[in-house]
Specification:
The complex is a heterodimer of chains A (about 350) and B (about 600).
Chain A: H1 28-42, E1 50-54, H2 58-61, E2 71-74, H3 80-90, E3 95-101, H4 102-108, H5 110-119, E4 123-129, E5 132-133, E6 139-140, H6 163-169, E7 174-179, H7 183-195, E8 200-205, H8 221-227, E9 228-230, E10 232-237, E11 253-257, E12 263-268, H9 278-290, E13 294-301, H10 308-311, H11 331-342
Parallel strand pairs in A: 1-2, 1-3, 3-4, 4-8, 7-8, 9-13
Antiparallel strand pairs in A: 5-6, 7-13, 10-12, 11-12
Helix pairs in contact in A: 1-7, 3-5, 4-5, 6-9
Chain B: E1 2-4, E2 15-16, E3 18-26, H1 31-44, E4 49-54, E5 63-71, E6 84-87, H2 93-99, E7 105-109, E8 122-126, H3 128-135, H4 140-157, H5 160-170, H6 175-195, E9 202-203, E10 214-217, H7 218-228, E11 233-236, H8 243-257, E12 267-270, H9 274-286, E13 291-295, H10 297-313, E14 317-323, H11 340-344, E15 354-356, H12 361-378, E16 381-387, H13 388-392, E17 394-397, H14 416-420, E18 450-452, H15 466-481, E19 491-493, E20 500-505, H16 509-521, E21 526-531, E22 533-534, H17 539-545, E23 549-554, H18 560-568, H19 571-574, E24 577-581, H20 590-600
Parallel strand pairs in B: 2-9, 3-6, 6-7, 7-8, 11-12, 11-13, 13-14, 14-16, 15-16, 20-21, 20-23, 23-24
Antiparallel strand pairs in B: 1-8, 3-5, 4-5, 10-17, 15-22, 19-21
The chains are: A alpha/beta (about 350), B alpha/beta (about 600).
């Protein structure tokens, strides 16, 4: 019998799996769940330290299908960011993994998406972006590109909200786009997002096999395969990985230092791309939209900003663990306060 | 300077410590300082006094009235008539004059150049703005208000030492401000002493001041109470009249809750809207902290979806509603008890919530900390229900009693041993038979579940099974029902005669005695029962049983408390209660309510 493979904290991958999925067979979201399991396991994150947060929709159901040993909260439609913010304030030591969809984040919850970025909540924010509302039978969402057509009905005529563009404009310190079928790229980006301190947004184009996997749909498997444009080859190097095990690419590459000491190695493909320059990222996204393409990879990275919990100047111990004497002024202080009121 | 007093004023002896001063100004003119100085001067003399600020939803320039009532009987309502009217605002001048009854003292600013043709009143005018310009041209608008303080000081006999204490308090001892304002007051006083040749029909007499007494508003009391309750996360979206709860917490946190190294033990997030504020409360409660937000009716409407999630997924949290006048934007700076229905059953489907209803500033403090205890004890959202009158006006208070109970985090399992000691543990399994299950916290690694707003079984797993749903909903009902006797009991003041019982709640506490006295003048003995929480305490039934006729008295149109009682009382008691509900945005005036009560009881008005 082959010994069970363990990760750096000696846990088998089965400690990171969840219940069986009830999504449609072939759904891109299930591929993303697989990547989340893989990335958390390989990064050696204790599953009990992870908090799985979601809103409402096909995407938001998926936390039941991964990380069964993590607490989670399947909240209300579009409001996952605020619940995550509140939890993060009282327990800053957890790893917050938010899963949302394009309906959840780009329509009903766009305000919360924006403000969570503005506050720089320390979390990974995954948008499982399929361009349609699946649970209500395939209406267009706000991220679907102009001209894209789902299986039934007329093509979409409204311009899209590009969540990556929006996030970059808001000053988000980690913005990436990937494809649910691009396992290697998505896994590297997912690990890097987990290694980032602050808000990390990954917009994952994830085909809806039931309502929008026809060739005229710009988020179908076929279309993304033909129209995807990778900014760079990508490799994630764990901070605990021995250097002699790391492959050195033959061409040019650039290393992105991540908060926990890990490195995201970006291999130059066709042209130079400056992931530190938000203007370049916006231009790349803009050009891709004109060309009806999907540009993928690490779009933007910046570690300068304090996170929402750092902004608070909190005590080191998570607020939810404070002993009673740190939660209530003592009687002597109370007497002083009362005396001051009476003066 | 002009004084009119040759009129026939009906004979009256000067009333002592029993009058109402109404100051008509525009907001943004600095009159708040002069009004608080008047209020505090009387307070310093030990005179039972209350002050009400009737202000507009506006930054500057719209009409504002400040009502000060002195009453040896301790009446705190605005009173049924004005005894001393100050006229400063040209926009309301004519209407203000029209409302004045014969014999009223009128003090006015001559520089407004509006007529005061009331020969049936005692009238005294001063060129207040011009005089103020003589002291400081730049600050004339503000300082002008101090002249009426001086005139009133002369008229009713405010002691100089009390006045000076009040001025010092108002300007926090800042000597230049104290000096300038005292000078204006003194000029006003001297000119009144020289120019007024009639006796004031209203005077104050010093009473023995309770050295423990101080003035405080309900919102600051809630803020302090929350800090003593161990609040870990305040999320808020500004809305009148609740913002000062949040601002109070923010102001007090560094001193009362930061560590000696200046590290915070409570996070504060100004949310992007009320939905997010509620979401943060749920997030904090889910993660094992004590989260709270404060808002008013419109905010509760927006938070309703999250409120249902908290109820169904059993997440603790606290929301304070400082009620303003609805529906919709309503009258944002006026008071009402119009959100009770909303709070009790907020959100879609079958829901019910624990509501704490303070009637005094002391209770605002107490329920401030208790709300967190109830929230974690019952693993649900708990509402504090205050209103603009209680929250934003100053009330006399003698003490905030230090919390009588230790902080208790409720049924939280923190170790594997604790879990294994429970046979067949499940997040939503009613192990103790009291409807309250045990929970584990994120990060503990203990029996993790995915909290959800969808149907779930006793282990927290998604379920649409009819019997699973039914069982869960019935347990939730039992859980909240079980809180009845544990919640603050009603305050009852009963007469032997037991003619009429009045059930009321919240800030009506400040008017009930005056209403009671008016009804007794009509020959009926009145017992009082102040409800302090929802669901209704079992003792309320006994009160109703002991009284032939019971009035449910409240400040809204539809009788919301009456409706809740009808739903929660046994059928045989429902026929005993009658609704008296009235709301016009103003703090309750006793006469209006007393008359409707008498009419409802079939009695002739006195």
């Amino acid at each position: 019998m082959r010994p069970v493979k363990l990760n750096v904290i000696d846990l088998p991958k089965t400690d990171y799996t969840g219940g069986p999925s009830s999504l449609c067979p072939g759904c891109g979201h299930d591929q993303i769940s697989g990547v989340i399991i893989q990335a958390c396991w390989e990064n050696g994150i204790d599953p009990s330290r992870i908090a799985k947060m979601s809103g409402i929709g096909c995407s938001s159901k998926t936390p039941a299908y991964f990380l069964g040993k993590s607490h989670g909260f399947n909240t209300v439609h579009g409001r996952m960011p605020s619940v995550t913010t509140g939890a993060n304030m009282v327990n800053k030591d957890l790893v917050y993994l938010g899963v949302s969809g394009d309906g959840d984040s780009a329509s009903i919850g766009i305000g919360q998406f924006i403000h969570a970025i503005r506050r720089n909540v320390n979390m990974v924010y995954i948008i499982e972006n399929n361009g349609v509302y699946g649970l209500t039978k395939g209406q267009y969402s706000a991220t679907v590109q102009k001209g894209s057509k789902k299986r039934k009905g007329a093509p979409n005529e409204q311009p899209p909200i590009d969540m990556c563009k929006l996030a970059i404009n808001l000053g988000c310190g980690f913005v990436a786009r990937s494809f649910s079928g691009a396992k290697k790229q998505l896994t590297a980006l997912m690990k890097a997002a987990l290694s980032h301190r602050g808000m990390a947004v990954i917009d994952v184009i994830s085909p809806c096999v039931t309502f929008a996997n026809n060739d005229e749909s710009y988020s179908s498997y076929g279309y993304v395969k033909d129209h995807g444009e990778e900014l760079h080859g990508i490799d994630y190097i764990h901070h605990f990985q021995p250097l002699n095990e790391v492959d050195i690419p033959e061409g040019g590459y650039e290393d992105v230092q991540l908060f926990d000491g890990s490195v995201l190695r970006l291999e130059t493909l066709s042209s130079e791309y400056d992931h530190t320059n938000p203007t370049a990222a916006i231009a790349a996204l803009h050009n891709a939209e004109i060309d009806k393409k999907h540009v993928t990879g690490l779009l933007h990275h910046n570690t300068e900003m304090p996170t929402a919990d750092e902004d608070q100047g909190l005590v080191d111990i998570p607020l939810c663990d404070l002993p009673p004497d740190m939660l209530r002024p003592d009687r002597e202080t109370h007497r002083k306060i009362m005396t001051r009121f009476r003066a | 300077m002009r004084t009119i007093a040759k009129v026939c004023i009906p004979d009256m002896d000067a009333t002592v410590n029993d009058f109402v001063i109404n100051v008509a100004t525009a907001n943004g003119t600095g009159s708040q300082s002069s009004n608080l100085i008047l209020l505090n001067s009387l307070f310093e003399m030990g005179v039972p006094v209350s002050g009400k600020n009737l202000f507009p939803s506006n930054i500057s320039g719209l009409p504002t009235w400040f009502i000060i009532r002195a009453s040896d009987k301790g009446y705190q309502a605005p009173g049924d008539r004005t005894n001393i009217q100050i006229l400063m605002n040209p926009d309301t001048w004519l209407k203000d004059i029209e409302k004045i009854e014969s014999g009223t003292v009128i003090i006015y600013n001559e520089n407004v150049k509006m007529p005061v043709e009331r020969e049936d009143c005692l009238v005294f005018g001063l060129p207040m703005t011009k005089l103020a310009r003589g002291i400081n041209p730049k600050m004339a608008k503000m300082i002008a208000n101090m002249y009426y303080v001086g005139v009133i000081q002369h008229l009713i006999g405010i002691e100089q030492s009390a006045l000076e204490r009040a001025v010092n308090r108002q300007f926090k001892g800042k000597s230049s401000a104290v000096e300038v304002n005292l000078r204006a007051i003194e000029e006003g006083r001297a000119m009144a002493a020289e120019g007024i040749d009639w006796e004031s029909p209203h005077v104050v007499e010093a009473r023995e001041k309770d050295e423990n007494a101080f003035l405080v508003d309900g919102n600051e009391a809630v803020a302090l109470g929350s800090i003593y309750g161990g609040i870990n996360m305040l999320s808020w979206y500004p809305i009148t009249p609740s913002s000062s709860v949040a601002e109070g917490i923010i102001q007090w946190l560094p001193e009362l809750r930061d560590t000696s190294d200046g590290e915070a033990t409570c996070a504060v997030v100004q949310a992007e809207d009320e939905l997010a504020a509620a979401g943060m409360v749920l997030g904090a409660g889910w993660a094992g902290g004590r989260g709270m937000t404060c808002t008013s009716g419109p905010g509760i409407s927006l938070m309703s979806e999250f409120i249902g999630l908290a109820y169904f997924a059993e997440v603790p949290g606290v929301i304070w509603d400082v009620n303003r006048v609805g529906p919709s934007t309503g009258l944002p700076t006026r008071t009402q008890q119009g959100d009770l229905n909303l709070l009790r059953e907020a959100s879609h489907g079958d829901t019910e919530h624990i509501v704490l209803i303070p009637g005094t500033v002391e209770e605002c403090f107490e329920y401030g900390w208790r709300a967190f205890e109830y929230a974690e004890r019952y693993q649900t959202l708990v509402f504090g229900f205050s209103d603009l009158d209680l929250g934003m006006n100053n009330w006399v208070c003698t003490d905030f009693e230090y919390p009588s109970e230790e902080i208790n985090r409720g049924k939280v399992l923190r170790t594997a041993e604790q879990i294994s000691a429970i046979e067949n543990y499940g997040r939503y399994r009613d192990v103790d038979g009291d409807g309250v299950p045990y929970r584990t916290l994120p990060g503990s690694g203990l029996d993790p579940i995915l909290y959800r707003g969808t149907g779930h079984d006793e282990d927290g797993i998604y379920s649409e099974e009819p019997e699973v749903y039914r069982k869960l909903m019935m347990r939730l009902k039992r859980k909240i029902d079980n809180s009845r006797a544990d919640l603050p009991a009603p305050v009852m003041r009963e007469e032997k005669e037991q003619d009429v019982g009045i059930i009321y709640m919240g800030s009506m506490e400040n008017t009930i005695q005056e209403i009671d006295d008016m009804i007794e003048q009509a020959g009926l003995k009145v017992s009082q029962c102040r409800i302090r929480a929802m669901p209704i305490h079992p003792d309320v039934e006994g009160f109703i049983e002991r009284h032939e006729r019971v009035i449910v008295l409240e400040i809204n149109r539809d009788g919301q408390l009456y409706g809740v009682l009808r739903k929660e009382l046994p059928n045989n008691l429902v026929s005993r209660i009658s609704s008296v509900a009235y709301s016009d945005g103003m703090p309750p005036r006793a006469r209006i309510y007393a008359d409707i009560i008498l009419e409802t009881l079939g009695e002739v008005k006195p």
